[in-house]
C-alpha cells in the first residue's frame, strides 16, 4: 500500500480523481488529481511524517474530517514502515480518548479542533508527536511546515505483520480496534475484489462515485482495488448533503456508485430530479448495513440503463465481505420485498463458511431456525488492540462469532435479523423497521428499541421531526405491539462514523436503559 499509487502510475493508469472539496492535506491544490499527482502527494506526505519523527513500527493515529486523504495518509505511514490507525472524528470524545489510550500511538495526525477535544478530556497528551493538518496549535507541528523534499525509500514488511488498524462502527458501545495484515487485507480481500468479474467488475471506462466514511476499513481496501483497476474517473463525496453532492455528480455522471446506507438515504432526493445524476448507473454497491426497499427502488428506477444491478454485501471490519445479494428492478418491486430485505445472500463461494448456533450452548441449530451466526473466513483479522481477551472470547474453535442473530436458510442464504446486543424475544427489530419504512413515506429511517418494561419503543426519523398520526396507525397494522413513536430529525439521532444509529446511546437517552439483548458477542 505504501507504493500503490507509484505502481499504478508506472503502469500507465490514466484515472482522473474529482473531489467535492480539496484534500485537507493539500488544501490549495484543487479538486482534480491524476494518479501520478496522487503518487507524488503520498511520497511528499511520507517525507513530512518522517521529518516529524515517524519511523518503522510506530503506530500512527489519524483523526480528521471525513475525506479520502485518510487513505493517502495511511499509505504514507505504511511507506515508512509505520502502522496507521484510522479513527473517525465523529466518535464521541470519551470513546476517542479510550481508543487512543489503547493504541498508545507514537504520533497523532489530527485537526486543531479534535486535539482540543482530546486535551480537555484525557489526562495527558494523546501522543508524543502531534501533527495538525489544518492549522498550527500549541505543542504540535503543522503538516505543511514539515520538509517534503527528502526522499523516503519504502520500508517492506512481512505479509503477516500488522499493516493497518481500523475500528468497528461502535453501534453497541466503544468500538473495537481491529488489526489487519497485508495477507488478510490485501491478499485475501483486495486481490479477490480486484478482478473484472462479468457485470460487476470495474471497467476501464467506468466513472466511480464513492460516498463513504473514509476512516473506516472498507475504503482502505476499496482504494487498493480501484487504483489497481484504473477506471476512467473517480468521484469522491465527503458528505451526504444532496445540494453539495449534486454539482459533482451532474458534471461527471457515474456508472458505478458505492455509498454508505445512510448516504443513500440522504442523497435520495436527487433521484427524482429531471436531470438526475444517476441516469448512467449500471451498478450500485452497498456495504455496512442493509438498504431498505424504498431506497433500492428509488435508485434502480433512477437509472436509465436497461438492467441496472444493486450488489449488497454483508460483512464486518474483522472479516471483510461474507455474503452478497443482488437486486434488480424486478426484485425490488416484488410483493415480498419488505419481508425479504434482511435476506443478505449466500456466503462468498470458496471463501466463507457459515453456520447458525444456539447462543447459549453453541450447538448448531437446524436450517431455517434463528441462531447466532458464526463464520469461517481466510481474511479474519489478527486481533483487537488492547482487548485480546475480548477477541479470544469471540472465537468458537475455528469459527468466528459475528455477534449477529439470523437464519441460515435451506438454500444456503442467510437473513440477518438483529445484533445479539439488540435482540428482542417478540420480534426482529430490523425486519419490523423495514416494514415501517416501506409503509411510511415520511420516514427517512425507523429504529425499534427494547424498553426496560413494556412494549418496544419505535423511533421514526423524518425530515422535519413530524409524523402524521393516521399514517402511523395504518403503518402498524398487523405488527407486534409498539409504544407510541418518538419522532426525531436526522441530526437528533446519535450516529457512528458510517451513519449507523448508535442504538445503545439512543436507548439510554429515550428509555434510561441499554437495549434488552445480550452484549456477550459484541
UniProtKB/TrEMBL annotation:
SUPFAM superfamilies: Acetyl-CoA synthetase-like
Membrane-crossing segments per the record: none
PROSITE patterns referenced in this protein's UniProt entry, alphabetically: AMP_BINDING
Pfam families per record: AMP-binding
GO terms (BP aspect): fatty acid metabolic process
Gene Ontology MF, one: medium-chain fatty acid-CoA ligase activity
Boundaries of every AMP-dependent synthetase/ligase domain copy: 20-384
Family: Belongs to the ATP-dependent AMP-binding enzyme family.
Name of the molecule in the record: Long-chain acyl-CoA synthetase
Source organism per UniProt: Streptomyces cahuitamycinicus
Amino acid at each position: 500500500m505504501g507504493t500503490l499509487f507509484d505502481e499504478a502510475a508506472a503502469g500507465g493508469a490514466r484515472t482522473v480523481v474529482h473531489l467535492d472539496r480539496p484534500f485537507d492535506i493539500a488544501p490549495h491544490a484543487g479538486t482534480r488529481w491524476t494518479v501520478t499527482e496522487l503518487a507524488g502527494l503520498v511520497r511528499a506526505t511520507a517525507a513530512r511524517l518522517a521529518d516529524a519523527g515517524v519511523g518503522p513500527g510506530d503506530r500512527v493515529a489519524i483523526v480528521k474530517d471525513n475525506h479520502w486523504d485518510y487513505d493517502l495518509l495511511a499509505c504514507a505511514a505504511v511507506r515508512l514502515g509505520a502502522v496507521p490507525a484510522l479513527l473517525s472524528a465523529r466518535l464521541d470524545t470519551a470513546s476517542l480518548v479510550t481508543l487512543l489510550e489503547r493504541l498508545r500511538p507514537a504520533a497523532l495526525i489530527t485537526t486543531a479542533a479534535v486535539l482540543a477535544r482530546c486535551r480537555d478530556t484525557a489526562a495527558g497528551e494523546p501522543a508524543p508527536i502531534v501533527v495538525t493538518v489544518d492549522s498550527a496549535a500549541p505543542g504540535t507541528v503543522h503538516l505543511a511546515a514539515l520538509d517534503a523534499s527528502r526522499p523516503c525509500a519504502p520500508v517492506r514488511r512481512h505479509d503477516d505483520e500488522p499493516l493497518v488498524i481500523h475500528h468497528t462502527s461502535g453501534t453497541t458501545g466503544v468500538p473495537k480496534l481491529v488489526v489487519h495484515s497485508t495477507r488478510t487485507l490485501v491478499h485475501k480481500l483486495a486481490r479477490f475484489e480486484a478482478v473484472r468479474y462479468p457485470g460487476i467488475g470495474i471497467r476501464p471506462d467506468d466513472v466511480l462515485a464513492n460516498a463513504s466514511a473514509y476512516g473506516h476499513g472498507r475504503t482502505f481496501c476499496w482504494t487498493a482495488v480501484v487504483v489497481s483497476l484504473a477506471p476512467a474517473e473517480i468521484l469522491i463525496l465527503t458528505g451526504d448533503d444532496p445540494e453539495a453532492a449534486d454539482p459533482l455528480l451532474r458534471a461527471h455522471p457515474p456508472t458505478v456508485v458505492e455509498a454508505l446506507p445512510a448516504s443513500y438515504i440522504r442523497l435520495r432526493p436527487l433521484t427524482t430530479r429531471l436531470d438526475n445524476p444517476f441516469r448512467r448507473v449500471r451498478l450500485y454497491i452497498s456495504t455496512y448495513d442493509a438498504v431498505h426497499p424504498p431506497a433500492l427502488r428509488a435508485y434502480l428506477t433512477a437509472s436509465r440503463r436497461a438492467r441496472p444491478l444493486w450488489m449488497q454485501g454483508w460483512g464486518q471490519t474483522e472479516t471483510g465481505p461474507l455474503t452478497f445479494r443482488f437486486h434488480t428492478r424486478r426484485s425490488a418491486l416484488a410483493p415480498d420485498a419488505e419481508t425479504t430485505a434482511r435476506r443478505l445472500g449466500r456466503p462468498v463461494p470458496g471463501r466463507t463458511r457459515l453456520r447458525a448456533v444456539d447462543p447459549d450452548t453453541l450447538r448448531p441449530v437446524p436450517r431455517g431456525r434463528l441462531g447466532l451466526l458464526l463464520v469461517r473466513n481466510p481474511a479474519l483479522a489478527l486481533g483487537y488492540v488492547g482487548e485480546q481477551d475480548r477477541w479470544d472470547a469471540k472465537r468458537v474453535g475455528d469459527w468466528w462469532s459475528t455477534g449477529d442473530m439470523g437464519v441460515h436458510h435451506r438454500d444456503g442464504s442467510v437473513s440477518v435479523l438483529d445484533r445479539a446486543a439488540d435482540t428482542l424475544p417478540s420480534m426482529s427489530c430490523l425486519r419490523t423497521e423495514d416494514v415501517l419504512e416501506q409503509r411510511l413515506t415520511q420516514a427517512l429511517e425507523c429504529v425499534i428499541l427494547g424498553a426496560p418494561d413494556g412494549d418496544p419503543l419505535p423511533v421514526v426519523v423524518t425530515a422535519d421531526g413530524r409524523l402524521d398520526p393516521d399514517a402511523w396507525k395504518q403503518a402498524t397494522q398487523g405488527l407486534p405491539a409498539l409504544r407510541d413513536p418518538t419522532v426525531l430529525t436526522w441530526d437528533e439521532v446519535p450516529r457512528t462514523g458510517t451513519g449507523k444509529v448508535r442504538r445503545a446511546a439512543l436507548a439510554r437517552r429515550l428509555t434510561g436503559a441499554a437495549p434488552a439483548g445480550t452484549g456477550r458477542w459484541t
